[in-house]
Each structure stands twice: as structure tokens, then as C-alpha cells.
Amino acid sequence: MRMPSLVVTCAALGVLLGMPADVTATNSWPVAEQQQVSDTTYGCLICHAEKRRSFTMGIHSERGIQCHDCHGGNPASFERDVAHRGRFLGSPDKLETIQLCSTCHADAGQMRQYGLPADQLAEFRTSRHGQLLLERGDDNAPTCTDCHDAHTILPSEDARSNVHPTHIAATCARCHEDETLMGGYGIPVNQFSEYRESAHGNAVFEQANFAAPTCTGCHGSHAALPPGVTEIVNVCDKCHVLIGRAFSQGPHASATREGTLPGCLGCHSNHGTERVSPDAIASLCANCHEADSRAALTGMELQEKVVYAVQELVAAETAIAEMLEAGHQVSNERFRYQTALTSFLERAQVHHSLDLDRLEDISLQLRSDTELIKATAESFAEERWEHKLLLVPVWFLTLSAVVFAWFKLREVER
Q: How many CB atoms sit inside 10 A of residue 257's CB?
């Protein structure tokens, strides 16, 4: 099945974007009736040989979309003037590009068969990029082809695509790392470098975990906007569901709803998304709360519990390693360790609620598992020591027998 023609015939969209309708191509030849052409029979490629690769690659080419479906003109002619006659659109500007792409991509009837959304134009109009371009006429704002290639359009799941999870941050950075360009809008240019070092960036680039968010995961793609102060928790909550639920039950939630606390960004940075070290929790709380306040004391107690839990896990892991090195079966201990680790991860979620009673319950569960592991390791260690003690008389008797045999051998020799 081929995608319908990309000819720009939707006058309503032209009015919506505030552009004249006569700048678009009008060839309405259905793609489904077209025959694939070769490089030597398709006039566009005779002159535009550098576009040959684009002509044969990408999802548009696979669906039979050809040059004249977007640009108009007469591809059967090999004379430039004749080929470019009529309602020909050579190099569309940014506004014309939006109108051109939206002819198909804002048409639910055409997009439905491919499972693609048809609301990109409406979303783009609400985005910061769309506001700058469509309402203010700011040509610094990107259009469709600034993020997607103009001709070789690849699906986002294709690793070669500009909008693949491993490439989307770099695609955004083309503009957002440009100091000259961003300086006019007061936007910092270190977002990409911060993201690369963040927990999210590490998950994407080092662990190939494409469930981790990229720029579009938090800001949106076509509707790109920075989330408002009261919206940040909801954005993070899309992935961190249990943490969001715990946060909503704690004292910080009301301040977030009132807009006096930027939600998750009160403790974590936005693009850096660093994990707070266990021994830095109290100092983090002190950034907002007085040193002797109830909240600051809660932060100190929370830090003590987290640090203790980490120490318990490290001790349990060390005990398992020692038992394994001594040749003991440790499958039960490993199972207990995983149970303790699950409790620790649950604790990491619950402490966003600052519910110390609930945290104490989880800490007791973790401690019971780690104590059993350490007790088993100590038991094995005592057994090994007892075995060593039992070997002392054995070695003594063996040595005595050797000495006695030696003396007997000397007597026989004499």
C-alpha cells in the first residue's frame, strides 16, 4: 500500500498558517497509480543527481512518493524551464514547509492507515517553536526539515534517523548548543552536556535503554515546551509512577501545587537528573530549611537511615562473596540479598513521602534479610576455624610418624 500524494491542496491549512494557497504544487496524480521510475526516465534526477540517494531511501520513497508530489512541476521533461513550469515549488521556506508536510500529516484519513497521529500541526502551533515561527515570524525557530531530513525521512526507530533516541539530543543540540543563537533568548547552552552525564543520559547512551527519556520525553516533540512549575511532577510521574505517588502523599506536594516548589527540581536538576548521594540528603534539605527546623531534623534522620541501609547491603554483599570464595553454596543468601535490595528500592520510593514510620518498617525488613546473610557467613567462618583447629593434632601425629620412621630407618642403616 502506498501513501497518498503529498501535493499541497488543502486550502484550509494554508489559511490556518496564514499563507497564500498559490505557493503550493497542485499535481493531484494519485501515487497509487504511479509506476516506479528509473534515474534515466525521471527528469528531476537528471539535474538533481545529488538527490538520487534520497529518492531511493526513506519511508516516503518506500511509499512511492516522488519529487513532484511535493515540489510540483513536470518530471517527464528534461528541459529545466519546461520541468519547472506551472505551480512549481522549488526550495520551500519554513512556513511553506509546514504547509507542505501538514497536507498529509494533518490529515487523519491519510495517517490512520499507518498508525500515525494527525495532530502534529496543532501541537506545533502550541509549542515554543511554533509560537516563534507562526506568530512572530522568527526564522530562527525550526521547521519540520530542521529536525527531520528534508528528503530521506526515516522512522524514529531507525538508528540512522535524526530523531532516534540515541540521536534526538544531538539533533536538539544543533541549535541549543549554539551560543550566538541561544543568547538572544536567554537560554543556556549546556543542556546537552548535562544530559550526557545524567542518569537519563547514561541509561540511553551507555545502557541502550530507550525507555529512558530524551529531550522529547519531557518537553514533547512537535509540542515542545518547558513544563511549568506545577507541571514538573506530572512530567516525571509518567515514568516514575511509584515515586510520584509517594511524593503526592508528602508535605512537598502541597507546595508544588501552589507553585512555591518546583516539584522534583527542588532536589534534582532538570537536565542533570543526578541521584542524590545518601550522605548528601541532610545538606540538600538544609538548602531550603533552617538548620534546627523540624524539616531539617527529618532530613538528618532520613540520611542516617539511608546510609545505614547502604552499609547493610554492602556488608551482605561482602559476606556472600566470602562464602562463595570459601566454596559454600550461596543460592539462598543471594535470594535474601535480592529481597533486601527490593526493600531498599522500595525505600527509595517511599522516602519521597517523608513518612518515617513507613520507612522504618521497610528498614526492618531489609535488616532482617541482611542480618541472616551475615549470620550465615559468620557460622561458616566459625566452622572453617574449627576445621583448622582439628587439623592441628592431625598434622602433629603425621609429623611424629615421619620423625619416628626416620629414626627407625637410621637404626636399620647402622
A: 14
